[in-house]
Every structure is written in structure tokens, then in C-alpha cells.
């Protein structure tokens, strides 16, 4: 498995700022510490979005890697890892390949895995222990 490189370009919606509109990230990173209303579409395996504890997002969110620590009232689609921090409140449909939810996180909506892990498992003991077949 090839290791991903870090995004080259980063953009910040600072605390106290509000952005309304649509953004396309091409192998770039968006950090939301303020308010973002609109859609974010990440293209490329290095596209990432972080919603900080002070951040609020409403609209649509799609990127390879997404981390939510603030408030997200949107549909979320992560082709890679979706991390929901203990401080997060998320409302919407969450589609993910990998999901990490910290205790204390609040999720209201639907969770939909885009990967069927059971297809790669030989038996239930392997599934329970986290082992998958090659």
C-alpha cells in the first residue's frame, strides 16, 4: 500500500469568519475553524477537510480524509478515513470507507459503509479479531 503524501496547499476559514459558496479541493486541505455554508468537493487522494471544535459546516462535504471536531449539518462522503471527535455533533448521512468515532461524539443520521468488510473475511473469528483474507 502506497503511503499518501501530505497536501501541499492549505486553506483556512478562521474562527469568527463565515464563508458561503462552493469549494473544490485538488489534493489540498481545508481547515474550518469558523462557519462554512455550501459544498466542499475534494478531488485526489490527498484532499482533506478538518472541522475544528469551533468550526461549523452546513451543506455537502466530500473528500478523501475528513475529521470533524465541531458541528456538521451536512451529508458527508469520505473515500478514505472519516474521524468523528468526542466534541463533534454531526447531523446527516455519513458515507465512509474507514470510520473512527471517539466516545462522546454525537451523530444523528445514517451511517453507510462504502466497503463490505465481510466479503474479505474467511470466518467469523477472523472478523471479530480484525483479520481479513488477502
> Beta-sheet strand percentage?
over 45%
Radius of gyration: 16 Å
* Secondary-structure element pattern, one letter each: EEEEEEEEEEEEH
Largest sheet: 6 strands, parallel
Number of strands: 12
> Which blocks of ≥5 consecutive residues have pLDDT under 50?
none
Number of helices: 1
Provide the spatial order of strands within the biggest beta sheet: 1-3-5-7-9-11
The class by helix and strand makeup works out as mainly beta
Number of domains: 1
The helix content is under 10%
Oligomeric state of the chains in view: single chain
Shape descriptor: globular
Average residue pLDDT: 87
Task: Compute the separation of the termini in Å.
Answer: 13 Å
Structural commentary:
With 134 residues, this protein is mainly beta. It has one domain (9-129). The protein is 4% helix and 57% strand. It has one helix spanning 124-129; strands spanning 9-13, 18-26, 28-32, 35-43, 48-51, 56-63, 65-68, 71-78, 81-84, 89-96, 98-101, 106-113. The strands form two sheets. The protein has a six-stranded parallel β-sheet, with no helix packed on it. It has a six-stranded parallel β-sheet with strand order 2-4-6-8-10-12, with no helix packed on it. The protein starts with 8 loop residues before the first strand and ends in a 5-residue tail after the last helix. The mean pLDDT is 87.
